[in-house]
From TrEMBL:
The lineage of its organism: Eukaryota, Fungi, Fungi incertae sedis, Mucoromycota, Glomeromycotina. It catalyses: hydrogencarbonate + H(+) = CO2 + H2O. It is an enzyme of class 4 (lyase). Its EC number is 4.2.1.1. This is Carbonic anhydrase.
Amino acid sequence: MRSIYHQPIKELAQAMFSNSLLTPPLSFFFFTNMADNNLQKLLDNNREWVESITKENPDFFINSSKGQQPKIVWFGCSDSRVPAETIVKAGPGEIFVHRNIANQFNHADLNSLSVLEYAVLHLKVEHVVVCGHYGCGGVLGSMGHNINGLVDNWLRNIKDVYLHNKSSVESCGDDKEKSDLLVELNVKKQVRNISATDIVQKAWTDGRKLTIHGWVYQLDTGLLKDLEVDVSSKQDLSEIYRYNC
């Protein structure tokens, strides 16, 4: 007997309604059919991808299963148009990736902190990349006053960035220029947040080569912009953020 987790969505729906007085609307099956097709397409794509990789390198997956040694950890936005590995043409094992809405690094977020600690202390990466993107919905949402749910709490940090740079942002010509500047300021803030962790500073104290970078992806061109805000030592930080480690 197949587990319910391996049954197509339409099949599950039919089983659910078969012994019930409820009758699902036709639109229900229309959308479940679409979902089935979309998921099957992903599975088919996966098989094609595996075939193309193994044709070029028969031992690729065997070697990949033995462990990872990426030199880069990537903190990016969850936006589906900014897939980290794709936009830099990286293969499996090259980048350790963490993504969330509006590429935030919050000192109270155990998820991001755990990723950073594992990448820096265990994988011993040499580069940390914070990558935002112009037209970021999270940044645009933080500039407004609408209630959007839990995400508003997450975006509060960007509102703080706006407030601390209010004169610069509001001197911009139009809303697009304002949001583009705030996207860049947000990336710069996350670079500073990561640099200010004891995780990163311990690596520096141990003599490790570790640099934090800030990049922005341009949706309309596909190009990355280096904001040139690299941080590679405690001396690059304000004294208040330096730990004795």
